[in-house]
Amino acid sequence: MSILLVRLRLIGDVIFTTPVIRALRRRYPSARIVYVVEHAAAPVVSGNPHLSDLIVVPHRRGWRRLADDVSLGRRLRAQRFDVAIDLHGGPRSAWLTWASGAPVRVGYDVAGRSWMYTRVIHRPRTLRPRHSVENQWDLLPAVDEAFHPSPDPDRDRVEMSVEAGAVARVRGRLRAFGLAAGAQLVVLHVSAGNPFRRWPEAAFAALAADLAGDSPRRWVVVTSGPSDHEAALRVLADARRRVGDAGARIVDADGLTLAELRALMDEAALFVGGDSGPLHIAATTSVPIVGLYGPTLPERSAPWRPRHLPAVAVDVGALPCRPCEQRVCVPGDFRCLTRVSADTVRDAARRLLEAAP
What we know:
Blueprint: E1 2-6, H1 11-16, H2 18-27, E2 32-38, H3 42-45, E3 53-57, H4 62-78, E4 83-86, H5 91-99, E5 104-108, E6 119-121, H6 132-137, H7 140-143, H8 164-177, E7 184-189, H9 201-214, E8 218-223, H10 229-243, E9 250-252, H11 258-267, E10 270-274, H12 277-283, E11 289-293, H13 298-301, E12 311-315, H14 335-338, H15 342-355
């Protein structure tokens, strides 16, 4: 059997598909399983041991994308897949699934695109308090009724392979910072893909200062996306001002690749960050996690991994506007994030750090 999986982006969304990959390999141990993904999220699945091949496509616009897709469609059709599964439902992924020519094409009942599939799965239009991994899993029984009706995070966790070269680079960078043996490392990710998921900079600075000031062996490594490095520098400067000499143990990890970020999580005693790609990379490891949820719900995107691994979700609680589509902040003040206090997050972080071996 030859199986095509299509999920082009984003980082967290691609991570949420990895339990499906594992389940397909378990059900079809000799199958050829090929994954199509865009370049930015490709490191998530590039070393996945359950995949036979990876096709990485550019994320371009206009006529260039059209040319790319026509060429890729021909390439996919030539490989004669038996089954194609669209794990997203977007226009591009739907078209590529259809263009593959697979006799069995599985996807969601998205308006205007359902005709591209031979087997259609209902997906409610509302934002439900149901995990994204479970939403992806809904597609599997349409391939084979033998699939268990629901995934189990103890058996089918999210995963991302560790790159040996990235481990060496990260350890070298930590040595350059001055971390000694026995240091306790906290990774603080201070950015997110859109403003609806960005906790205030002052709150991050207060948290970093408190955690670094707690113990002379504790270090706080601040990470951010490429477009948010200026914000990370402001957080660093503010945190260092707040904590005095301990500020030397609050350091900037600018420029990490996704593979290096994954390796960094294995060195950490704690990860703190919002509902974005780095949180879900952390979920592929055993590091304790404090997740910050604003417009999104932890029921939809909490770490999907064995239950014994510690994770705490911090949010503001019920709001009439939460969850939202993250297009317009109706109240206008981003209250789902600004009302999450640094003290609340700090206390959750301290509990996990105190419980750590």
